[in-house]
Design a protein that fits this description.
The structure is a single chain. This protein has 196 residues and is mostly helical. The chain is 83% helix and 0% strand. It contains 8 helices and no strands. The radius of gyration is 17 Å and the shape is globular.
Length: 196
């Protein structure tokens, strides 16, 4: 069971469903409830498709390029750290004018629900915990994000603007810590490989 949580938590933090609530509320402002539900469904389907496709072909692409898991852990951890620091220092996530019909696909499904942090984390977790467990954790986390977006209005009222921003910053801090762990493990794996 501990393996499940070790795989689940980094993805939960990387998805940061609460952190994207302010952006979601801003993008869907003025839409009818039925339109908002359609946007949420579209975002979940697109996010799931992108994440699972990346999991299916990502490792093969790395092998083709001659990139080892240790290489990817160090590079991925560094990228995650930069993303986390950027999120911590950015006060507002950029909002773009979008078409309501494609809003769920972009920017909500990709890159808000499944972006570089989720893709990098999931590929690293495949090396750590295997494909089966990682796929399960990705699916659960994307579904949780969908539920959070579906309940956006009551959650936003409960947390308030300051509360959701605070949760988002805490999530970014956790991502930074997880990124450092990935880099440390990558360096350890690389050194161990040299010694054998």
């Amino acid at each position: 069971m501990s393996r499940f949580w070790l795989c689940f938590v980094p993805l939960f933090v990387a998805v940061d469903a609460i952190g994207i609530l302010p952006m979601f509320m801003g993008l869907t402002e003025g839409l009818e409830r039925s339109q908002m539900r359609r946007v949420v469904r579209q975002s979940v389907v697109v996010a799931m498709a992108v994440a699972l496709t990346f999991l299916a072909i990502g490792k093969g692409v790395l092998s083709l390029l001659g990139v080892t898991i240790a290489d990817f852990m160090i590079a991925g951890g560094s990228l995650l750290f930069i993303i986390a620091v950027n999120d911590m220092l950015t006060f507002e996530k950029r909002q773009r004018i979008v078409d309501p019909d494609s809003l769920g696909a972009m920017p909500l499904g990709v890159p808000l629900i499944v972006g570089p942090a989720v893709l990098t984390t999931s590929l690293i977790l495949v090396g750590e915990y295997g494909v089966y467990l990682t796929v399960i954790c990705v699916i659960i986390n994307v579904l949780i994000a969908g539920v959070v977006l579906y309940l956006a209005q009551p959650i936003n009222r409960l947390l308030g603007g300051a509360g959701s921003k605070t949760v988002s910053k805490l999530a970014s801090l956790l991502i930074a810590a997880i990124a450092v762990m990935f880099v440390r493990r990558g360096i350890t794996t690389f050194i161990t490989g040299l010694q054998t």
